């Protein structure tokens, strides 16, 4: 294990580390050997290092590391830089610049899974771990600076100088004087997976007797066909689904019917807003023109129209491979409830048997902490005798409670409280995805809530499921169908303590490594205190048109790769003379798993402005 130490003042830290088994130490400092030897205890530390086989190198600039090592010796497993400083009375800006050059240099000599340790005095880092915490502009902003070189903060630990044998800090204002390290913190950085620009994707599916290929909406390219629920998956969403199924099978006759579910839904969806749907095929009068498809939003498949009357493959649009009626309309399924309805109408299920459907569902939605453009839904349906539906619902709820508590037993962190609340006690704006399908099948009767405390109130975002009952004369006048729908993603988040839904979709292997063999555990984030960046955009709305806020949010999702975590309307006014309306929105960018720099965000903001101007017809201010 090769360890590189930079900026050693008297080499006492390097000497204390040198004795570790299986570690080869390369200790360096910025000054020459003659300058360093005059410092107290430095000569003795250098002698001890060389006796133990360590390398000692002088006059090393932390901003040009690769220049000091041969190519075969450039890869280090760990790099330490304790209390970096430009010297003298250099301010925070100069020290940020030093760190920026240092991190870029580290990226050239660090192994892929290596660590960078930076110790800073209390308050310098500018993270919530500092006590007290400095104002952001007066700190070194170390996490944001590291992000510029592709690093994320993965851990923060106290720097306990008293536990390091023989260590003595030195270098106060470039002198052989010690300084206060009480409350100092060691910041541990690791490489981030790079930001990815996804290419357009073609998806091929079999729909009844027809074979379809269509372009996936760009905002969903990294989320389609991820296979979270497949047999070989260790993803916590699948674990939650499998354990729920196992628990329910002990109480009810149970049948899984996932295999026959189509990714596309055909036809009309009552009660669902057109703007919330990812449409795939629309009628000719709504099909984009050749000019629209050859550039901009249509070509990026945000709305995913497919022109099935023209050969436009060169522009990224693929025709239906086999014939279809012109009036047909297809969309990515926004819920499994229409699938359940189709099963009921076919009569393809047994009385008293609990039928289970599960799979990913898709919808356009506003950007909020619990609004997901894709998530995994689990639907239960069962036909029971009329008059027994209420008791059956209660039995279903009791089993849901028991099953979720059973899942939670292996995960600590907060107390779970699960309750039923009547639909009348909810405001529509407080629901996540359930309200969008309230008119599907029947009115929602109950919401299944999970709470983190014992207050008894269903906090925003903690509604994880719904239960409803519907009368279907197609089956029998004596039968009632009971439905239950659960959001598996939100369940997994609440059980495992995952605060950001985007983490479920990360490509970083450090996420799934925390759930070996499908075990449910309390999740520990590998990206701490990610920096956030705020940008405003103001524009005139087209005259006489209703502003499509869902499309506005969907464009933000697409151009940022889901890096926008909040969009707030901060100002609105209308000119009395012309009647023109102006809106001003504030966008907050932040990544939960990747390094995100201010430069990358600035580029996203420019693309966002260009897209909303082109596709929403707004006039930028």
Automatic annotation (TrEMBL):
UniProt record, GO biological process: rRNA base methylation; translation
FDX-ACB domain span: 528-621
E.C. designation(s): 6.1.1.20
GO annotations of cellular component type: mitochondrial matrix
Reaction catalyzed: tRNA(Phe) + L-phenylalanine + ATP = L-phenylalanyl-tRNA(Phe) + AMP + diphosphate + H(+)
Predominant location category: mitochondrion
Record has DNA repair as a keyword: no
Domain of life: Eukaryota
Record Pfam families: BMT5-like (PF10354), FDX-ACB (PF03147)
Annotated InterPro entries: aa-tRNA-synth_II/BPL/LPL, BMT5-like, Fdx_antiC-bd, Fdx_antiC-bd_sf, SAM-dependent_MTases_sf
Family according to the record: Belongs to the class-II aminoacyl-tRNA synthetase family.
Protein name per the record: phenylalanine--tRNA ligase
Species for this entry: Chordeiles acutipennis (Lesser nighthawk)
Species classification: Eukaryota, Metazoa, Chordata, Craniata, Vertebrata
